[in-house]
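Let's study today's protein:

:::
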Amino acid sequence: MTYVFVIFVVLGLWHLYYEQVISETIKQGLKYKFYKLRDDLRSENINGIEHKNDKILFNILDDSINSLIYSIDDITITNYMLLKKEYKKDKAYKKVSDYVLNLTEKSKNNRLVNIEREMTELGISALVANHGGLFPYLCIPMFIWYIVSVIKNQVGKLKKEIENISSRMVFNSAQKVRYTPSGRVKVATIIHN
């Protein structure tokens, strides 16, 4: 019982440390990457975006990056599932999402497309960072699964070894083994009537 209490205390301390220190540090680093991405995007706009659709995509990407910077703590699996459900259910939301996807696919400006991909990758990193505190909770079941599979493997090997030994014992019981003074083995088969 004491061990269980100690395990829960250690997991609680880990979770607190992760949420207060590690996660915040990772998210701050991601924010800086988002800032750099936004600067690259705005630099691309300053250099001149020629097509009307690329100009629309620029505005969408700029708003999206700003939203990701200010709501990086809200990038969670729960919110992802809600958005996915909303995408399937709400036709207006689906239409807007598909429109943005279509703009990205048809864009003539490769830099805008790359910025959109980098933004997506940073969003996924933020999702992982927001749930990294759960890692030890996932490791425990995986560790137990690993131990069980190793034990099953060892039991299988032991079972084969026992079968080999028992078959040798059956074979040897049908034969009479004698040792000579020189240490050599003489085998005389026992004939059962």
User: Anything to note?
Assistant: The CA atoms of residues 65 and 119 lie 7 Å apart. Strands lie at 175-179, 185-189.
